[in-house]
Amino acid sequence: MERKRTKKIMVGNVPVGGDSPITVQSMINTTTKDIKSTVEQIKRLEEAGCDIIRGAITDFDDAKAIEEIKKSTNIPFIADIQFDYKLAIAAVESGADCLRINPGNIGSEVKVREVIDCCKERNVPIRIGVNSGSIKKEYLEKYNGVNENSMVYSALEHIRLLENLNYENIKISLKASSVPLTIKSYEKMSQMADYPLHLGVTEAGPIWRGTIKSSVGMGTLLAMGIGDTIRVSLTGDPVEEVRVGREILRSLNLLEEGVEIISCPTCGRTKIGLIDLVEEAEKRLAGIKKPLKIAIMGCPVNGPGEAKEADIGIAGGLGEGLIFKKGVIVKKVKEENLIDELIKEIESL
Ligand code: SF4
Q: What is the DSSP string of 25-69?
């Protein structure tokens, strides 16, 4: 798959677009001005591998809190603003690394210009985001309802407002809760503009359903080479969004960091508690940054052979298991010690 080349922008110290690695974003669900809870949540997200975080800015206390939050966290902070241009300016002055605001919602050109001047001064990009639920009536009428045309042309209107003020430090999102509409909209936009694209399927739902919708929607686009940064939207702990986002990238070989677990589905030959072993391994290996493929297979007959591409792995037997490296068995271990031994082997690599 060849990646569609877009312009590169900087969100704080994280590049987005061009040939930069595809980044994973999330959004805090704390009240931004509750600095303690917000910092705690951002730290958990950083640990899970979140590259960029966004927070809702609903008043001046939220905007002011950005400065303090940034002192205790390490990833760029995007201020999500709905309409109030003064809040946008306050957020940028407080240290926001990017704004998520639609210039068409700000009001007069004078107000848009004030926001742009403030962003230009600090090299702060703006994300224009069109969601299928908030397309203006005139676009719905002109393009016969909610579809890729009304989505894309709505976004282009906001983009033109910025371009007319010589501002091109932009990224774009076009989120719909419908996966086919999300795909069609991003595909169309990628043919019409070369600004970096922030992918997302909006209101994807609870963790199980939302993971599937996001994986299908964003996975399809990424496999087509479209997308520069992603956010999985789930009704749940934002850490789950980051885990899912990273796994989507990993599954397409777009993230070469951390452990990929290959495990068999189990069958009548499985004589070991494989499901529990895999769960334990997943938890205990989560913090490893080194790119590794770990296989956890149910039987010694097919396990090592089927998982030859893994760096290291386990093949279960009756109350015991074999540890293998690149498909070759190196050790026999009791079931209860398998994960400890696996970790020792990983550490010695
Ligand atoms: S690796 Fe062995 S236990 Fe696992 S599914 Fe294949 S045959 Fe069954």
A: EEE--S-TT-HHHHHHHHHHHHHHT--EEEEE--SHHHHHHHHHH
**Counting atoms of ligand 1 from 1, which one is nearest the CA of 301?**
2
Residue with CA at minimum distance from ligand 1 atom 7: 302
CB contact at 8 A, 25 and 42: no
CA distance 308 to 180: 36
d(CA 152, CA 132): 10
Tell me the pLDDT tens digit for each residue of 64-107.
999 999 999 999 999 999 989 999 999 999 999 999 999 888 88
Cα separation, 88 vs 63, in Å, equals 8
8 Å CB contact between 9 and 16? yes
Query: Rounded to the nearest 5 degrees, what angle is found at the Cα of 14, between the Cα atoms of 232 and 32?
Result: 60
Whose tokens are 């199980």? That residue is: 208
- Confirm if 7 and 168 have CB atoms less than 8 A apart: yes
Q: Is the pLDDT of residue 1 over 80?
A: no
Element (H, E) at 323: strand 320-325
The bridge status of strand 328-334 relative to strand 23-27 is: unpaired
Ligand 1 atom closest to 316 (CA): 3
Rounded Cα gap, residues 285 and 213, in angstroms: 26
Tell whether ligand 1 has an atom less than 6 A from the beta carbon of residue 299: yes
What is this structure's pTM?
Answer: 0.91
Q: What is the DSSP string of 172-235?
A: EEEE-SSHHHHHHHHHHHHHH--S-BEE--TT--BHHHHHHHHHHHHHHHHHTT--SEEE---B
Q: Decide: 268 in ligand 1 pocket, CB within 6 A.
A: no
Nearest CA among 123, 89, 83, 80 for reference residue 104: 83
**Is the CB–ligand 1 distance for residue 338 below 6 Å?**
no
